[in-house]
Structure formats: structure tokens, C-alpha cells
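The records we work with from here on pair a chain with its fold. A complete example follows; check for yourself that the lines match position by position.
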Amino acid sequence: MKAQAKAQTDMAKMQAQMQKDQFKLQLDAQKAAADDDRARDKMDQDLLISAAEILGKYGTAVDVERIKQMQAVPR
């Protein structure tokens, strides 16, 4: 009876640990996605600022849409 109770307790602990590990993995994935989104937003803002600077300095328009399409291509 003690062995059965210990086995059940061990199983419950293992399941709880698995749930904690799974939750941590999900949280890490969400954090990575948020960091990726933030970096992509910064890249977009930097591109627009650079395009505006080039337009202001040289009067030459930059094809921002083409650059964005090139950035979106999987590598």
C-alpha cells in the first residue's frame, strides 16, 4: 500500500513538473515571438528613417516596398 501511494505521489509530481516545463516553453516561445516582432518593427522604422534621409539629402526616392519584399523572402 505504501509503494502504491508513493508511486501515485511520484506520478503526480512528475505530471506537475511536466506542466510547469510545458508552461515555461510556451512562455519562452511567446517571449521570443515578441522579441522578434519588436526587432522587425525597429527594422521597419529604421528603413523609413533612412529612406526619408536619402530623400531629403539627395532628392532620390527609395523603393521601400521593394526592400520590404526582399526582407520578407525566407532565407
